[in-house]
Amino acid sequence: MCRLSGVCAVVVAMVFGLTGTSTAQEKTPEEELGVHRILTRTTAPYDAQAYLNRIAPGPVEGETAVQYGGSVIYSRLANIEGRVQVKVLEGFPAPAYWGMKTFLRSWDDPDFSVGNCVVCHTPTTFTNGKKYVVDESGEAKVTPTLRDMKKSGEELEKIIRHKMKMAAKAKAGEGNIDAAYKIMRLEEKDVDQLVKLMQSLDSVSKEKFRKIIVDAEILDTTDVIE
Q1: CA 20 to 30 Å from 193, out of 11, 129, 158, 162?
Q2: Rg of the chain (C-alpha set)
Q3: Contact 89, 181 (CB under 8 A)
Q4: Which of 98, 89, 93, 96 is nearest to 226 (CA)?
């Protein structure tokens, strides 16, 4: 007969949930967020549109950031643009969508703006954790994440304009700015679009996350050619 002492007591207590030891498995992202078949736990508007537009959260094993950006633009986005199925939502409006494409574009293309951002600010964390010289100081700095910066539009615009200035210096051979800046080619229209994209990376509550998914709208892409 089992007396409730020693090992036997512990076993019985665990079976009937009488100890503080948890045997429950960690919830999946789907269970945690209450969103069907979602793969990530992050709850920014950017993540909501990536889920709805079925964009890969980040590069797969063996895939570079440049390859990832090309795959998203020329495979996934081209497909849903052609069928007018791109979805935008609260916190990720149309300008953020166009800014995302500039963010992902990392190759010389005379017909489109090139941000080359994805090389350093690689999803899903939006940083590759590496160091680069990004200003006149000549000091290599760790790439910060773009998630949850919680900055105002004015502050973000200042950051982007500084990047544009450094890109011009890199192309002119001034200073020791990283070569990645030479690929950048941004115009005035890109500033607001990139600001909107960066703002879309600020997290929202789980409840708000579910709501903006439900309330998403279709973006008119009938005239888009890329």
Answers
A1: 129
A2: 22
A3: no
A4: 98
Locus of tokens 């964009």: 55
Let me know: does 68 contact 58? Beta carbons within 8 Å: yes
What is the tens place of the pLDDT at every residue in 21-39? 444 688 998 888 888 888 7
Q: Which residues contact 63 (CB under 8 A, 6 or more apart)?
A: 71
CB 146, CB 198: distance < 8 Å: yes
pTM of the entire structure?
0.86
Q: What angle do CA 205, 206, 212 make, to 5 degrees?
A: 85
DSSP state of 143: P
What does the alpha-carbon distance between residue 110 and residue 133 come to, in Å, rounded to a whole number?
26
Chain mean pLDDT for the chain: 89
